[in-house]
Amino acid sequence: xxxxxxxxxxxxxxTRNRDGLLKADDxxxxxxxxxxxxxxxxxxxxxxxxxxxxxxxxxxxFGDKSVLVLDLNAQYVYYLDKLRGILLDGESFxxxxxxxxxxxxxxxxxxxxxxxxxxxxALFPKESMTEAVRLILLLKTGCCGMAFGFFLRKxxxxxxxxxxxxxxxxxxxxFAVVMQHNHMWIDNMIALPLIIYAMDELIRRGRFIMYTIVxxxxxxxxFYIGYMMCLFVLMWYFARYFMLTKKERNPEGKKHHFxxxxxxxxGASVLALGISAVIILPTYYSLSFGKLTFSTPDYTxxxxxxxxxILAKSYFGAFDTVRPEGTPFxxxxxxxxxxxxxxxFSRRIPLRRKIGFGSVIL
Length: 362
Description:
Blueprint: E1 14-16, E2 22-24, H1 26-56, H2 70-89, E3 95-96, E4 103-104, H3 106-113, H4 129-155, H5 160-171, H6 174-178, H7 187-205, H8 209-221, H9 223-243, H10 246-249, H11 257-287, H12 308-312, H13 334-345, H14 351-361
């Protein structure tokens, strides 16, 4: 292969110099190395930070505590144990006699267990379920940082230390930490930076495969947060499209770009929802047995809390309660709160971007 002029297996990686020798495409290889290094650090730092937090709090083996708190202790660990039985002992995936008088299991799977991280329980013995859950939480924390690091590596010109810092802030924001007892909601935090990057690729280059896969994953991993992700996609697409310049969003100068791009993202979204129908349809069928009639939702908009209270939740340690009367957990670093106003006062940032981001925040 090295002595032939025909393209071989390495033709996409190597190019021939004047001496007839093969050399690596240094630019591509260097970019891959930098991306790999970024992902490793952005995964490892949040992962180890969360592990250190567990150690300081006395979570086993550093004490007699565990990660099983609130609903994670009262419900979810038993569902995970049931999933382990399905995977290893051949128990029914559709129906369970462990429910009161027996009942379907698909609805429980769709809401609590459909994250691929749940499969980790099959690697642990039954008596080590607590350790399995802890590993799931640590891996999700690391993957949140890694996904955000991927986004920064692809979209920002930053030093590695800066990317790791912001990725850690994202992975350890209060929603990710406080809501560990609702572990099935964290998968959408992993998907969020990837969807934002994929939407940019769709707008600028018409590439929709990554967007479709990540959105399908977001809905399949938890349909409850997944539908919120769909609402975000709808909002972010229009804001993002018009905050980009004409050259940024349409570098190839295609005609009717907005209509074509809107059609692509609509089709890709429908395709993603079609893929996730494997979860959505059984879930709807399950809920139709009675849970859909437990209450009559009121969709009338009303103020549930003072907007000024949101600022207080942006500071370190601002915890009130996980009950419905509490305010949202949004802390992602006091630095973000302090620096945000500077963004809107900076003369280097175009007005259209300030309007776009400001509307999204509002």
